[in-house]
């Protein structure tokens, strides 16, 4: 093999390795910082939902080794848009722990469904103190801790059944068995006993 070809091959190899390392680090940090985060706002000590500029953080982490975090979105904006973003220290300390999906999965893990009493293996819905059943994704992210504090978990299957009961009561015939679980939602007005 001629020498110029060897140097060309070596140059391409070095460039390929550098790109592999850069893009590997970029993607690792992008996945780490993307998505909605729940933090405690340092100004009012209330939950707030934020999104980090994941592309910028990943780019800086791939180049320098340290992510440069800045907020893209905050639930307290636009009225508090000029804040000093002191909440970023919470994300820097534990990016996985403050991710909304992680908080939701942790809350549902190992709990039993309010209706069927089966263990819940995936995030489903909640039954509120008022008796309403709502999918957790319909809750505003900054309200998730407050709603979870006063609600009970519902599995995905029971959520579908209860939603159908509420949306189409004319299509449901309910037969209440004496030994039935006492925590069911009261029958709809057109129930057959």
What can you see in these coordinates?
With 193 residues, the protein is α+β, with helices and mostly antiparallel strands. It folds into two domains: 1-98, no CATH class; 99-193, no CATH class. It has six helices and six strands. Strands 1-2-3 form a three-stranded antiparallel β-sheet. A hairpin with a 6-residue loop joins strand 1 and strand 2. Helix 1 (3-33) crosses helix 2. The longest helix is centred in the first third of the chain and has 31 residues, at 3-33. It is elongated, with a radius of gyration of 25 Å.
Number of domain units: 2
What is the radius of gyration?
A: 25 Å
Distance between the termini: 90 Å
Extended strand count: 6
The mean pLDDT is: 84
- Which band does the percent of strand residues land in? 5-15%
Helices, by number, come to 6
Main features:
single chain; 193 residues; alpha+beta; three-stranded antiparallel beta sheet; 6 helices; 6 strands; 12% strand; elongated
Secondary structure layout plus pairing:
Blueprint: H1 3-33, E1 36-40, E2 47-52, H2 54-64, E3 71-74, H3 88-93, H4 100-108, E4 125-127, E5 133-135, H5 144-150, E6 152-154, H6 156-167
Antiparallel strand pairs: 1-2, 2-3, 4-5, 4-6
Helix pairs in contact: 1-2
């Amino acid at each position: 093999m001629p020498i110029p070809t060897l140097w060309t091959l070596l140059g391409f190899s070095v460039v390929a390795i550098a790109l592999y390392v850069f893009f590997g680090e970029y993607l690792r940090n992008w996945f780490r910082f993307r998505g909605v985060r729940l933090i405690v706002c340092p100004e009012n000590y209330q939950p707030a939902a934020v999104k980090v500029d994941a592309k910028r953080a990943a780019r800086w982490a791939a180049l320098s080794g340290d992510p440069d975090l800045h907020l893209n979105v905050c639930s307290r904006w636009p009225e508090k848009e000029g804040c000093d973003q002191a909440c970023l220290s919470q994300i820097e300390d534990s990016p996985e722990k403050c991710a909304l999906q992680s908080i939701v999965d942790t809350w549902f893990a190992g709990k039993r469904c309010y209706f069927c009493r089966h263990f819940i293996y995936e995030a489903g819905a909640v039954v509120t103190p008022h008796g309403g059943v709502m999918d957790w994704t319909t809750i505003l992210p900054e309200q998730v801790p407050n709603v979870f504090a006063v609600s009970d978990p519902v599995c995905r299957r029971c959520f579908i059944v209860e939603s159908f009961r509420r949306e189409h009561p004319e299509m449901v015939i309910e037969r209440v068995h004496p030994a039935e679980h006492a925590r069911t939602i009261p029958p709809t007005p057109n129930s057959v006993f």
